[in-house]
Design brief:
Elements lengths: L3 E5 L5 H11 L1 H6 L2 H10 L3 E6 L2 E12 L2 E9 L8 H12 L4 E7 L3 H9 L3 E6 L8 E7 L7
Pfam families: Acetyltransf_1 (PF00583)
GO molecular function: acyltransferase activity, transferring groups other than amino-acyl groups
InterPro entries: Acyl_CoA_acyltransferase, GNAT_dom
Length: 151
């Protein structure tokens, strides 16, 4: 895929983002009240649509609520567009626009596809948190934007 871009979502993009999430996992979308989360993120200027070759293929929710560092709360890419380098490019675009020294994100231990994507995008493992999803710990990752600093 060529020409991968992100742009801040507007309220008119809500249906697109909600549909992308709903189609990916209807049960999780409903259980986690994702429509509300997406709506709030759009209104707060924290939701970005992902396009590849001028087709909307996903969205990302990004903010600075994690210890004032960049935080990728959610990234959704339509399944038929996965494995084409879109996620890696989106991570790069988020990091390029980030106003803090680091970008953090997390995923469940069971989500090996996301773990591989993060490693491919040069994110480093930061640690594990148990207790959020029983039996499926949350794995945290980060990428340093200013590479001259030490950990």
């Amino acid at each position: 895929m060529n020409n991968i871009k992100i742009r801040q979502a507007s309220i008119s993009d809500k249906a697109t983002a909600v549909d992308l999430d709903y189609r990916l996992d209807k049960d999780e979308h409903i259980k986690l009240k994702r429509e509300e989360k997406i709506s709030k993120a759009i209104l707060d200027g924290e939701c970005f649509l992902i396009s590849a070759d001028d087709k909307e293929v996903g969205f990302v929710i990004f903010d600075y609520r994690f210890f004032d560092q960049g935080w990728i709360e959610l990234i959704i890419i339509d399944e038929k567009y996965r494995g084409k380098g879109i996620g890696t490019k989106v991570f790069d675009l988020i990091c390029e626009g980030c106003k803090s020294d680091k970008v953090f994100t997390s995923t469940n231990r069971s989500n090996t596809q996301m773990q591989r994507a993060l490693e491919k995008a040069d994110f480093s493992f930061a640690g594990e948190l148990k207790g959020l999803d029983e039996g499926d710990p949350e794995l945290f990752y980060y990428k340093r934007i200013n590479a001259s600093e030490n950990d």
